[in-house]
């Protein structure tokens, strides 16, 4: 899957039979890519943080990094054949490895994920073959979708009208990713129907796409090397064989494909947050720029503890959501929406805490910490990829209400599904786009299962000393909250308040279920760089999500904060990804790619 002769996994081989050996083998593609890209902190590495800063300052795309990592990233969602396809949890880690060095590498290589997924989902064999060939060659297929400058969401004015035996396309599209020089374009347009069936998808070839592109484009404050194009159609002829799927199926195809987009794009939040936390930690607890002999003060310690815990919970939520999408694809629509909301809020809080640790140093465009400002701006843009937070809350409110109507408190738990979802070293069923649906055809697989096995988990936690008792206290409180919530189904009477507060309460409780069941089904694995069975990460994670469920704002008590700092030291001082998988990272100085001048020349392509 990951090319590169001579590349080896970071950290050396893992002996067969040792705890975590199967997990390490499962994520070998990510480890190989990490080794191939070299040390992110090495100033002489164009695939590192220095290259990211140089490109941002020049407003240049990450051409060099995309060349190194683009093949693996493109094949995450568009493999040449099924034997190359990674499971979604493997894909998430591969993307994180590249994006932690520069989040912009995702739009530079993966903005066409929506268009390609749409065609793979509903296109004819010749259309699928065409887009796979474009992707394999490193080309870009744009999606001119829901965004229009003068129309609201789902109110597109771009029209597909009849003309003779074919159609004609009129109107415009705005903020089209990879719109600068596309090799093709998928356009969502209004075909004159009514309701959800009023939309169709059209696949334009390279000539038509480039001919209809407006010379002006838009750029965001983040993702500075990525342009967002405009397209204008004035009676563009469209043949019947250019439709993707049937007429009137465009919105359904788009919304189904966005489930995959949401799940894979979680990597942007996780990767950027990892880099932000790594920079703040290095500054606060012994980096070259600030060595505090007595250690960080209490406020700084709390901020770092909360940031670490928030990222750890976001990592677990992402892992469970992507694995559940393959095990229970009928629930993927709700799972992807839950994960997007949770991961967006958790990583935003973590980056804000890191920003407070750094103070003005984190906002400067020069100096040793200027990479933090780049990451902060990139993540602000990533927050709005595929939908706004407000639209996401409305969608989740509707989904949770529907789940409550059809899957109430009396529904038995499907405990057989949970180990397949939560055992992180376990294999997954084959990935299939066709199984992704719009409606949540299956109930929540996690919350009822947690309530079912809770007594066994509680008994096990009592044997783990003080840390276990802290986790047990938090778990007991979580179970009480879940019971009051009508088994986590979003009961309006049990959780009064605005849609946003009700949604966020449910999201927090669901995150608690994900945390608990992931720990329970991986007790023999060294998660978060800690010994197997450790609960040092469990108690802070549960306390944090419970505080959020009760309307708090990401607080940890003193003991949980100290436990969280144990996790931070294991991961950040130990040069590991802030993840349950805790992938070893290439250490600074381990790879030499040339001097600083060569680095900048490679990082910023000449125009």
TrEMBL record:
InterPro entries, alphabetized: Acyl-CoA_dehydrogenase, Acyl-CoA_Oxase/DH_mid-dom_sf, AcylCo_DH-like_C, AcylCo_DH/oxidase_C, AcylCoA_DH/oxidase_NM_dom_sf
Keyword Flavoprotein: yes
Domain Acyl-CoA dehydrogenase/oxidase C-terminal as annotated: residue spans: 248-371
Keyword Ubl conjugation: no
Keywords of the record: FAD, Flavoprotein, Oxidoreductase
Pfam entry (one): Acyl-CoA_dh_1
Entry's family note: Belongs to the acyl-CoA dehydrogenase family.
Name of the featured protein: Acyl-CoA dehydrogenase, C-terminal domain
Organism field: Actinoalloteichus caeruleus DSM 43889
